[in-house]
Fold this protein.
Amino acid sequence: METRRLSVAVLWLSVAAGLCLAQRPYVERLAPFVPSPQVVVERMLEAAEVKPGETVYDLGCGDGRIVIAAAREFRAKGVGVELSNDLVRQARDQVNRLGLGNRVTILQGDLLEVDLKPADVVTLYLLTESNDRLKPIFEKSLRPGARVVSHDFRIRGWKPLEVETVAVSGRAHTIYVYRMPPTKD
């Protein structure tokens, strides 16, 4: 009898847990966190021709290094979008330590859901398949003249305006620069 009660309790807990999970939207990770070397970060922003006062979005911003560099070195505004609680906390702490809270915002959430209309520049270090998912969002949301800069992974179907290779510690990093509307391959 005791075993039966325990089985029924486990069954009910399983059902309840399943219902709770079904109500929580699943947000997919589009790439692992691999920090871009600082020299690559700087070169990405230079290649994008970031100007003072422009707004740079970094999708999957990790520790916030790209939007922080955009604010510090180019006097731009930065918006980082990151899924990981720990990385968001780390990026926000760094923004606060550097006194950049008036120019850099770190958003926690799904980068596929963020409004990109204010962006002058979008940077990414995501997988090619993730870039494929973002491509229609870029085409719909980004205004003419906005730049998209991707570290190591192309945006299939778009012809880059510029491709640059940066060597860091014996590894080649490729930077792809696109301008909206993109030239199609």
